[in-house]
Amino acid sequence: MNYFTKPFESLGKIIQIYISAFGNFVLFVGDFFLLSFSAALRLGLLFRQLEFVGNKSAMIIFIAALFVGGVLGLQLGLIFRLFSAEGLMGAATGKSLALELAPVMSSFIVTGRAGAAMAAEIATMRVNEQIDAMEAMGVNPIGYLVVPRVMAGVIMMPLLSGIFLFVGVIGCYFVAITLYQVDNRTFIQQLQWIVEWKDVVKGLVKALIFGFIFSSIACYKGFLAKGGARGVGEATTDAVVVGLLMILVADFFITLFQVL
Fold it and tell me: Does the model's pTM come out above 0.85?
């Protein structure tokens, strides 16, 4: 009898672990919101994180967007050439970048760079007992460490996504006019006709949500770290992997909500 019930017991334990982890994360996020509105915001820490998340990611975003836009132009140009509709390259690229690729790709890049750094820094402080020392001195570690980082992610991700969108369209523009001989005026007219401001706003809203997702998960994983250097590495890896997966899951449901 135990032979048949053991798999169900194991499955139940796994489900219990995930439910418990999700509940702890919800409580962690609740503490963040509580401290965000009730505690005095340390502007110096916030500006430092804004510079870290935004300014230090801008060049990477610029280079990635330029080549993503160029690759989109190359692929879409081959398809539209079959129908003699190369003039639609800019419109198709702008639409896909505004709604999906700009917020998702920029969030992936910033998660791999800033999110991993957030998790590693907080995890190092946890295993070195610096967070315990903060609590002993009466300093709330969530208000001091988490609030500035999450707010920086929320503020900077829409800006970085906007840069990705703009530069990506420029990358497609150069491919269109140099390799597919698309008329400059036609490219711009089709882009303005197909891509609406509401598309841009939808993408920026996604980026804002993704910024909250990756930064909150990174901080949460850092707080859970234990076991020395190995624990720091595991926390950093978990923060990036879980952050990327949750961005994709959130992207699906946000898009579903926007479509319906």
Answer: yes
